[in-house]
Amino acid sequence: MNDTILARIADTLETRLPENGGDPSTSYVAKLLAKAPDAFLKKIGEEATELVMASKDGEREQIVYETADLWFHCLVALTHHHIRPEEILAELARREGLSGLQEKASRSA
Ligand SMILES: N=c1c2ncn([C@@H]3O[C@H](COP(=O)(O)OP(=O)(O)OP(=O)(O)O)[C@@H](O)[C@H]3O)c2ncn1[C@@H]1O[C@H](COP(=O)(O)O)[C@@H](O)[C@H]1O
Predict the structure, then answer these.
(1) With the CA atoms of 16, 76, 67 and 99 taken in that order, what torsion angle do they form, in degrees rounded to the nearest 10?
(2) What's the whole-model pTM score?
(3) Most distant CA pair in the chain: distance in Å?
(4) Atom from ligand 1 closest to the CA of residue 29
(5) Most CB atoms closer than 10 Å: which of 11, 57, 78, 105?
(6) In 3-state terms, what secondary structure has residue 57?
């Protein structure tokens, strides 16, 4: 049983894939996936820009809202590529405690 919100949303998004019978006339996600990758890439670009603007303005509520939009559209992209959010969480866990500066230095070593 997938009990995190990201896993539950991913489960739903998988049902919207064209090969799983996703119907663009009843589902926003199926509409995006039917026109993959261009449709969701356009939305990711738009939502990222909206987050940049909200951050510039320092509007707390708007930052939360736009980040949710961006994360959601990233989940749609992952669904298209058959990548589960758990893989992203595992990658973040792998990086936990490793300073970005340290990691960058190790690349040039
Ligand atoms: N979390 C979301 C979610 N967040 C945002 N959105 C939609 O993403 C779109 C964001 O686009 P904008 O804010 O730019 O609004 P817009 O201008 O109307 O959008 P466009 O027509 O330009 O694409 C809106 O239509 C939102 O409703 C979402 N749509 C769906 N979900 C999840 O996905 C599930 C499946 O959705 P359907 O496939 O539509 O049933 C839902 O049950 C939710 O859990």
Answers:
(1) 140
(2) 0.94
(3) 53
(4) 38
(5) 78
(6) helix
Cα distances (angstroms) measured from residue 65 to each of 12, 35, 47, 48, 54: 20, 25, 10, 12, 9
Fold annotation for 5-108? Helix Hairpins (1.10.287)
Q: Distance of CA 95 to CAs 31, 85, 92, 109, Å? A: 34, 16, 5, 18
| pLDDT tens digits along 19-62 | 999 999 999 999 999 999 999 999 999 999 999 999 999 999 99
Residue boundaries of the structural domains of the chain: 5-108
Mutation pick for ligand 1 pocket among 5, 17, 29, 67 (CB with most ligand atoms within 8 Å): 29
Say which residue the tokens 């909200």 belong to: 54
- Choose among 13, 74, 101: nearest CA to 2: 13
> What is the ipTM, given to two decimal places?
0.93
Question: Ligand 1 centroid vs 28 CA: distance in angstroms?
Answer: 6
